[in-house]
């Protein structure tokens, strides 16, 4: 909390702001677990884990609703200003993105039952695992940038989004090759391709979170700053 | 992206800003005690600028420099330069009486004179001899009350004492009284601090309308009010102007830590 | 010596009752005073009040009525010789005998008187002891009754509270009753006077020379007296002098008040205001000889130099000096009133570009008007009631004139001259003083009522 070294005069307000950040962290943890589990289920073709993961998304949705309500009530009751206002508004954004990542995890888990594991080569799964690890790392770092209010980490996350995109393109080529090799692979490969695409989307949401963190810290729009040359991505 | 940013920034860059009043290195001493330190502040024509800051930081003092109300305090000593349309208002050649007609003032507590509503509004025009006939005066009183949004409520009881109105009406009467002298700048020192939310909203609406014809400087303790009514905001702290800028920026992204701490309610 | 003994007794009684109540309050709690409903001090107070109050009432009653009992017992003692006297003479006889019985030295007295004196002495000697015993019994008994009631939940605090409010009522009652008594005595004595001199002749007669009043009984007494008790000249004189005084005091006082409140620097104010108030502290007799010895000759000389004849005692001299005397009333009160007009009105006016004097003329004075009017009324009452200056500077002759350069006289002066010297208490001359007093009272009352009305009227508008 580099920006707000001083405690708020109204301590209950301070407590609410802290609680909001804590809820975001908690929700981030839930989402990370969901992505990890979904990937595991996909790779190990673990139908139970898949079901469990899909079910767990409900908790993420509830968490988002909770954060929204908290944020709205704080806006109504406290009329937040400046840093506090940005804190609350970006918390709403971040919660929204996290909820979408949660949806992605659910989507991944649901695909498990459509994929015939016997036929798919382990190599393909490796690509998915790699993709998932990269997306998770992005999510983790973006959440770090939010809770630590660190604009540099946020910039870093945005920078690395290209890596995720590049990985997705290469996976896409790979899947295409497999499909051309053996048309029986088409169904499975298409499912896995969607999984990869979803994970790529999760990476995008991570950059959104980083963007929100950047706004929280600096009060500026990250892309406007990039366009105007105030910050450099690479 | 660029469309979005354009939309975002049009509010700030509407046309050319002409500077109505300007303070350069304004210092104020009350006897030994210095109340303002080198304040540089431009007041843009047809805009509302709000002065915020903790009590005793010198907001009223600065405001009172703008129409030389500080002259009425013996121990008060103003240095630096304050201009109105480029002319130094502390110049010897300036007639204070005329200056105050051009830079009107509305106070924290509604202070209608113990006279009828009509006489309250007619007070300024009378002492400045602004009208040639009774009809002209009537016309001026009516139009001032109209512009202050009070006409409908008082048109049938112009001869009743101004003090018989409610607090919010009294404050609008004071605004009508101030605009009857056809000022160019209107100074308001916490004009809503004694009013309920509805009366406050009416005054705020009024301020927004008055902006068309007047330049308004308003001191307020309500962050929300400053955010609602003003285009520019200036933050004072311990007699110094800490930060000044477009209201959106001050309230979403103040550059100075003291400003941030003050408007978010943190101990400075 | 006796008075100190009495005082000591009272102190001992009060202290004893207080101590008894307080210690009893402690006693009933077994040492934990917090469980008491009221503080122990209130219990003490309650016992004191219960003990002393009845005794005080009995004492008051006795003081008022003992004379009747004494008179009755003495006249019963005197018998035939006393009964032969007329009722009026009986009263006078008893009064003088009672007076003599109270004094140490008794000179030559008749045997009857001696008997009466001894009767009084005996009566009071016997009753004093009884009275003292009764009072002591009341104190102890009342205190004991209250003392017995002390319990932890006794509401002694409320009892004391009621006693306090009763005391406050009693205090204001004294003031009201006194006023009422004075007014009633004025009215009754005036009625007496109007039996001797017709009401309208007094009020509207134009000739005032009470020294030539005819004392006696006869059909033409009333007629004769009506000619010498015409009060118009002295009312006119009062009016003239008061008008002159107000004409001096109102502008000067008001302007100095404005100067003090709005123009003077704090330093000047700190010196000038007390100085002005010193004027009010100068004894009026000093003003009087100032008027008679300095102002009157000065007026006379300057009048003569421009060909005016000024009498050596003139209404103008008295009015001028009286005006100066009441300046502090006007200025000091007006200054307070003007100061209490909120600064926000001054700021508001200045903020519209008004100059200081415009602000004062158009805002401050109208706002302060009720207070200024009451200040003026007070000054007028003071001027009407003033005697000394007029006696010394304006003379005693009741001229009916509007010329301020001639000698006139006022109501108060005439009251004084009527009452100095030896005369019968119920002569027309003496009673005329009461009638004048009554008129004076009515006029001042009316002024006050008018002032209150003015204040109320503008209060409604301006507050
Ligand atoms: N008339 C005065 N005499 C002496 N000191 C004053 C006077 N008016 C204001 N001050 C001092 O100047 C400082 C600024 O006051 P002011 O401008 O009224 O503050 P604000 O309006 O921001 O609450 C305060 O410290 C106050 O004590
Ligand atoms: Mg102020």
Number of helices of chain B: 11
β-strand amount of chain B: 25-35%
Shape of chain B: globular
Shape of chain A: flat
Mean residue pLDDT of chain A: 88
CATH topology of chain A: Methane Monooxygenase Hydroxylase, Chain G, domain 1
Largest sheet composition of chain B: 6 strands, mixed
Determine the structural class of chain A based on helices, strands and strand pairing.
mainly alpha
Total tally of structural domains of chain B: 1
By CATH reckoning, the class of chain A would read Mainly Alpha
Radius of gyration of chain B, rounded?
A: 19 Å
CA gyration radius of chain A, whole angstroms:
19 Å
Q: How many angstroms separate the termini of chain A? A: 27 Å
Number of strands of chain A: 0
Question: What is the SS-derived class of chain B?
Answer: alpha/beta
How would you state the average pLDDT of chain B, rounded? 89
Order of helices and strands of chain A: HHHHHHH
Terminal CA distance of chain B: 37 Å
Ligands, deduplicated: adenosine-5'-diphosphate, magnesium ion
- Level-1 CATH class name of chain B: Alpha Beta
Binned, the helix content of chain A reads over 70%
Walkthrough of the structure:
- The complex is a heterotrimer of chains A (234), B (268) and C (463).
- Chain A is mainly alpha-helical and 234 residues long.
- Chain A has seven helices and no strands.
- The model of chain A has no long low-confidence stretch (mean pLDDT 88).
- Chain A has helices at residues 11-44, 47-78, 82-111, 122-148, 151-181, 186-218, 222-227.
- Chain A has one domain (11-227): Phosphate transport system protein phou homolog 2, domain 2 (Methane Monooxygenase Hydroxylase, Chain G, domain 1).
- The two termini of chain A are 27 Å apart.
- Chain B has 268 residues and is α/β, with parallel strands linked by helices.
- Chain B is 38% helix and 25% strand.
- Chain B has eleven helices and ten strands.
- In chain B, the strands form two sheets. In chain B, strands 6-7-8-3-9-10 form a six-stranded mixed beta sheet, sandwiched between helices. Chain B has a four-stranded antiparallel beta sheet with strand order 2-1-4-5, with helices on one face.
- In chain B, a hairpin with a 2-residue loop joins strand 1 (19-30) and strand 2 (33-44).
- The longest helix of chain B has 14 residues, at 134-147.
- Chain B is globular.
- By secondary structure, chain C is mainly alpha-helical.
- Chain C has two domains: 2-152, no CATH class; 226-459, MetI-like fold, CATH 1.10.3720.
- Helix content of chain C is 79%, strand content 0%.
- Chain C is built from 17 helices and no strands.
- Chain C has helices at 2-28, 40-78, 80-83, 87-102, 111-149, 156-196, 199-204, 221-228, 232-263, 266-281, 284-305, 315-340, 343-351, 356-385, 388-393, 411-419, 428-462.
- In chain C, helix 12 (315-340) packs across helix 14.
- The longest helix of chain C is centred in the middle third of the chain and has 41 residues, at 156-196.
- The radius of gyration of chain C is 31 Å and the shape is flat.
- The two termini of chain C are 59 Å apart.
- The mean pLDDT of chain C is 84.
- Chains in contact: A-B, B-C.
- The structure holds adenosine-5'-diphosphate and magnesium ion.
- Residues 59-60, 189, 219 of chain B line the site of magnesium ion.
